[in-house]
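Figure caption, in words: inputs first, then the predicted bound structure.
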Amino acid sequence: MAEVLVFVDHVDGAVRKPTLELLTLARRIGEPVAVSSAPVQRTPRPLAEHGAVRVLTADAPEFADYLVVPKVDAVQAAYEAVSPSAVLFPSSAEGKEIAARLAVRIGSGIITDAVDLEAGEEGPVATQSVFAAAFTTRSRVSRGTPVITVKPNSAAVEAAPAGAVEVLQVSFSERATGTKVVSRTPRESTGRPDLTEAAIVVSGGRGVGGAENFPVVEALADSLGAAVGASRAAVDAGWYPHTNQVGQTGKTVSPQLYVAAGISGAIQHRAGMQTSKTIVAVNKDAEAPIFDLVDYGVVGDLFEVVPQLTEEVKARKG
Ligand code: FAD
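Bound structure (flavin-adenine dinucleotide present):
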């Protein structure tokens, strides 16, 4: 069976969930081989436990000291060593940049932001959700080795013990060390999951009425272990950080559950959340367009409904 290269996204060696989802998808189209730029003692185990038949590890200071090019060099070295039938990346900003650079180097076509992947007679077929999720397309790369980036939450994480660990030898090109990272400022942690990767997202909009009311949204999010999102109206008003904006000009999320509180459902907001598996909305206007796409809709005042929902979730969790 052909091998499929999977780029490992990690934070200080801790493998991120979208990579484990990629391994599930890779198993549909071949045998996953993970390529990791994390210290060898940290990443292999979760990768091997989730179906990577081989884990290629390259540990070098260049990965942290410079921008993405050393990682492109590492993936290219793995590509040359493995001759895979496809190369998969998570659809993060970094994943997409590395994928694009690799595709140019190896003369391949690239598909970005896939939401599903399946085996096809002439190569893997990727599903994308395009034009504000108004259309679903299925496409495949027709030139070279398919390079495909996949959005978080596109597949379940499945355990599948496999795996041997091998050291990958990488020699870095001159351009890899062209831009040095001189300092890093860690983002302040909220203790909540990352918005784009979260399985549940609870978002607030203009209906929340002010920054001082956002704790109502946060309380529901925390009861569900969810990330907090916001509409552009809410972030433009300064009620919530821009990094939490969901939509066309914000983040695209595709969680198992999306709860919209006080959000009307403008097309630009829908563009960022329409592929969520289950959508719930609370809005006091029964005519709000968000109700056209919900699985469950509550017509009511969010300040009455959301706290009750939070209490109910807490009570059921015991
Ligand atoms: P509104 O449309 O004002 O809706 C507020 C809703 O809250 C109403 O439906 C109201 O009935 C309800 N409500 C009020 N009070 C309560 C209450 N107490 N309880 C329950 N419900 C209540 N928007 C985004 O979100 N993300 C984007 O990325 C984005 N990008 C854009 C890009 C461009 C180029 C443009 C032109 C616009 C973009 N927008 C984006 C803006 C978008 O068009 C809408 O203006 C915005 O989404 C509206 O946010 P909202 O739903 O919170 O506010």
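The chain has nine helices and 16 strands.
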